Amino acid sequence: MTDKEEFVVTPYEVKGRIDYAKLREQFGTQELSASILDRLQQLAGGELPPLLTRGVYYSHRDLNLVLDQYARGHPFFLYSGRGPSGPLHISHLVPFELCRWLQEKLGVEMYIQITDDEKFWARAQLTREESVRWGYENLLDILAVGFDPKRTHVFFDSRSIAALYPLAIRVARKIPYSTVKAVFGFPPSTNIGLVFYTALQTVPCFYPSWESGRATPCLIPCGIDQDPHFRVTRDIAEGLGYPKPALIHSQMIPGLLGEGVMSTTGNEKDNALFLNDPPKVVERKVRRAFTGGRASVEEQRRLGANPEICSVWALWKTRFAPDPKEFEQITADCRSGALLCGDCKSNLLEKVHAFYRAHAEAREKVRDWAESTIITRAPKPD
Ligand code: SF4
Predict the structure, then answer these.
(1) Atom of ligand 1 at shortest distance to CA of 340?
(2) Taking the C-alpha atoms of 166, 171, 174 and 176 in order, what is their torsion angle to the nearest 10 degrees?
(3) Mean pLDDT computed over 298-312
(4) How does pLDDT run across 316-347, given as a tens digit for each residue?
(5) 295 C-alpha to ligand 1 centroid (Å)
(6) What integer best gives the mean pLDDT of the chain?
(7) pLDDT in tens, 33-75
(8) Which of 253, 197, 227, 282 is nearest to 28 (CA)?
């Protein structure tokens, strides 16, 4: 599939070459404009992270309203989640890294949902033991991004059901089956767990308002493929007396082999860098990665390469060259032919190995307090 017209993006399927501007139009979301980013920068009191300045996040719903309220002294909270079916790859960290930055700069609360139930319902080959085990493993990777333990709260669905259920009951009554069927395209064979799951995924958007008795805005950083889930939530929010959740959407990180996006589900495991990949595997994957380089060294020196189609450049852009000057230099040297792909990959590998080492250390440190973040009881009698 090569034609941009043929791309498909849903919460359960991403394929084809995505035309992100067209997707934003199709989904009816707003552009993440320079004026909104300026406002966020003023509120945060410092430089914006590369994820915001380099177009990785590019779309939103009502972010302006959330920032307006924050400026008037009404803090929002952050919500993001993970369906555990295997190890995380580095592009899974993108929403959590933005959340970490927002939590640090704006002092807001963070809610994380680990949907071990949803993944069990969605993947016929996944056992309950596996979905729970991956839930804990993924949670450690997420917390290792650097969240503040005092401001971070986790719904681990199968363990947090007593807290989730009173609100899920109310949410479920507002969502007709026809809506879920239309939004997610479920065939008749879909199990009833997945049909109910939308109610559970909605609960964290309202939970702090329900708990405190005060309308508290919610901001959800997520890949744009997850937007349909929250369209349903936004449609019912006000009917239940809660604010519509706002969203900020990222593009997906391209796969290492130049095919589609980094994904857990593809057959080709070399298309993604998983956080549990040993160093030798990381090395092999980066060396195999698709580039925008030329057929020969001579040609590349003469004509330069094309960073826009390069999966290595996408890694520099999203994570491994946070210094704007360094990133500009890599991009300029790529275009001019001063940088060759083999050297570029060697430079990147140094950064990637250093990142894996730091992440493994951070992961060990969060083990001590991860358990204490899991919400297991309802905050008040139903
Ligand atoms: Fe990609 Fe680096 Fe080659 Fe440029 S020099 S095409 S960024 S691998």
Answers:
(1) 5
(2) -110
(3) 96
(4) 999 999 999 999 999 999 999 999 999 999 99
(5) 12
(6) 93
(7) 999 999 999 999 989 999 999 999 999 999 999 999 999 999 9
(8) 227
The answer to whether 87 touches 134, Cβ cutoff 8 Å, is yes
For ligand 1, whether the C-beta of 307 sits within 6 Å is yes
Is the pLDDT at 226 greater than 80, yes or no?
A: yes
Tokens of 229: 């889930």
Q: For the chain, how long is the longest CA-to-CA vector?
A: 72
| Angle (nearest 5°) at CA 256 between 184 and 222 | 40
SS3 letters across 265-301: CCCCHHHCCECCCCHHHHHHHHHHCCCCCCCCHHHHH
Of 306, 339, 340, the residue with max ligand 1 atoms within 8 A of its CB, to mutate for a pocket test, comes to 339
Fold of 2-256: Rossmann fold (3.40.50)
What number does the ligand 1 atom closest to the CA of 344 have? 2
Q: Are strands 109-114 and 8-10 parallel, antiparallel or unpaired?
A: unpaired
E-assigned strands of the chain?
8-10, 13-15, 30-31, 57-61, 77-82, 109-114, 152-156, 218-223, 246-250
Which H or E element spans position 170? helix 161-174
For the chain, what are the domain ranges? 2-256, 269-366
d(CA 36, CA 80): 21
- 2, pLDDT greater than 50: no
What letter does residue 316 receive in the DSSP assignment? Answer: I
Supply the DSSP string of 11-49, one letter for each residue.
TTEEES---HHHHHHHHTPEE--HHHHHHHHHHHTSPPP
Torsion sign (Cα): 173, 177, 180, 186 = positive
C-alpha atoms less than 13 angstroms from C-alpha of 202 in its C-beta half-sphere: 32
CB atoms within 10 A of CB 54: 16
State how beta strands 30-31 and 246-250 pair: unpaired
Query: In the block, which residue shows the tokens 């939970």?
Result: 207
CB-count burial class (<10 Å; 0-12, 13-18, 19+) for 355:
middle
The CA distance from 112 to 60, in Å, is 20
Asked if residues 274 and 248 have their Cβ atoms less than 8 Å apart, the reply is no
Grouping H, G, I as helix, E, B as strand and the rest as coil, residue 242 is coil
According to CATH, what is the number of the domain 269-366? 1.10.240.10
